[in-house]
Amino acid sequence: VPADIHVRVQAGPAINGTDLRDATGDIVFGKFKNQIEFQDAGSGINRAMKKATLDAIDTASLSGKTLEIFGVFRLINPKNWLITPVKVTVK
């Protein structure tokens, strides 16, 4: 990654945004009763990802290790990325 590009990874405790919900394009507003249910779906997916992907990572032991991260992001600023992970491998 070039030095002028910053890549951040959502690691909790809160996972913000709806990138996981929106990434596939299959979960659309028209399938929900209202905006609150649509937002709740995004929050539920974020919680499930955190439980399945992030909760088992021992963050205290990551110093000096390499992380392989697969995830989604919405490119808003090409110099500042925020990735929401779906898989993290500690090497």
Structural description of this entry:
The protein has 91 residues and is of the alpha+beta class. It has one domain. The chain has helices spanning 19-23, 35-54; strands at residues 6-9, 67-72, 80-90. Strands 1-3-2 form a three-stranded mixed beta sheet. It is globular and about 45 Å long. The two termini are 19 Å apart.
Report the portion of residues in β strands.
Answer: 15-25%
Q: What shape does the CA trace take?
A: globular
Number of strands: 3
Structure class: alpha+beta
Helical amount: 25-40%
| Mean pLDDT, all residues | 94
Whole-Å distance between the termini? 19 Å
Strand and helix map with partners:
Elements: E1 6-9, H1 19-23, H2 35-54, E2 67-72, E3 80-90
Parallel strand pairs: 1-3
Antiparallel strand pairs: 2-3
Give structural attributes.
single chain, 91 residues, three-stranded mixed beta sheet, 2 helices, globular
